[in-house]
Amino acid sequence: MLGERVLLGPGPSLLPPEVSAALSEPMVGHMDPDLFPVLEETVSLLRDVFQTENELTLPISGTGHAGMEAALLHMVKPGERLVVCSAGFFADRLAEIARRIGAEVIRVEAPWGKPVDPADLEKMLKAASGPGASCVAAVHVETSTGVLHPIRDLARVARAHGAMVLVDAVASLAGAETPVDNWEIDACYSGSQKCLSAPPGMAPISVNARTRGRFSPATYYLDLELLWKYWGSGHAYHHTVPVQFVYAMRAALRLVMDEGLAARFERHWRNTRALWAGLQAMGLELLVDEPHRSPTITTVRIPDGADDAKVRTRLLREYNIEIAGGLGPLRGKIWRIGLMGHSSQMRHVLTLLSALEAVLASEGVKAARGAAIAQTVASR
Ligand SMILES: Cc1ncc(COP(=O)(O)O)c(C=O)c1O
Options 3.40.50.2300, 3.30.1050.10, 3.40.640.10, 3.10.180.10; which CATH number does 18-259 get? Predict the structure, then answer.
């Protein structure tokens, strides 16, 4: 057995004991009538977490990418125009999947570490020639940069131009406010392993009536109407759902709603702000300007003299703590620290700061010593 890790990377996050216990529920068949109430409760809890009345709300068997692919397959037909608000790795992934589907992909860009400006989306939608965009896609928390996108404003602009709105909430659902109905999001997907703190392997998705029935996508496994026939009241066989993951998802969702969405979002903000205070007290620089920082992922510039891989390996080997390095143009330049779901706890913030301080000091990196903990505690 591997030692217990403190998972403070951009996912997966730590599992609460109730979720670990749910993984050992007795095996039952996916068509067992006793499983059906579990499916129904899971769907109902998911609607609460997405803050939606959308009927078609369910967890896809598959990781966040399955949610991304399913959403795109139902939102854009081959030949239709998709605008991607592009400022990081996961927006690029959305654009690439859409390209493979045969969509005409147009990007509104911002440098990595900045959010896409709704005014730039507006300009682009106004200037675009030919048929309008059928859909605008955006990543709520861009995990590669730690930016929290202004989804409400981007969605407003998209709708004003007659486009539908697709949102990646993989690193935000249950960690940052994502009210699907209130923000008039047409399709929203997430992943089980981040702020929901369930194991990787399920992708919650919710689509509204406008999205449903537009056309029948060229997929069987990810056909949401077919999936709904299993998850909804019919419970007709579609594929063999991973039953233990369903139990784990239900347990995770129950915990989210027991805590309450508002309290949960507040906890994520509080712990992340404490982390920022500690990192800055050490003299480290955060990548993202404060108004655009996410409450779930923090990105910090690697200080001069620190060896990216060596520091991360020492944190893992000596302190059992996982954080992640940068992706794409930010590789070797930043560390990514996730405080998501069950990982978002003050004790983990303090453990990470002390361990990082110890590792940087012994690597001879110039960083203020002893200040981080005091500053973190004072910031609470
Ligand atoms: C914002 C975002 N979207 C999509 C994904 C893809 O999810 P998965 O790795 O579970 O397929 C990730 C994974 O980190 C992500 O952070």
Answer: 3.40.640.10
Summarised one tens digit per residue, pLDDT across range 250-294 is 999 999 999 999 999 999 999 999 999 999 999 999 999 999 999
Cα–ligand 1 centroid distance for 337 (angstroms): 15
Q: Round the average pLDDT of the chain to a whole number and report it.
A: 96
Q: Which of 90, 112, 178 to mutate to test ligand 1, by most ligand atoms within 8 A of the CB atom?
A: 90
Give me ligand 1 centre to Cα 126, in Å.
31
Instruction: Take atom 4 of ligand 1 and give the residue whose Cα is closest.
Output: 64
Q: How far is CA 327 from CA 54, 333, 334, in A?
A: 34, 9, 9
Q: How far is 230 from 36, CA to CA, in rounded Å?
A: 9
Cβ partners under 8 Å of residue 303, min gap 6: 283, 284, 285, 360, 365, 366, 367
Given the candidates 1.10.8.60, 4.10.910.10, 3.90.1150.10, 3.60.150.10, the CATH classification of the domain at 6-11+261-378 is 3.90.1150.10
CB distance 203 to ligand 1 below 6 Å? no
pLDDT digits (tens, 9 = 90+) for 19-59: 999 999 999 999 999 999 999 999 999 999 999 999 999 99
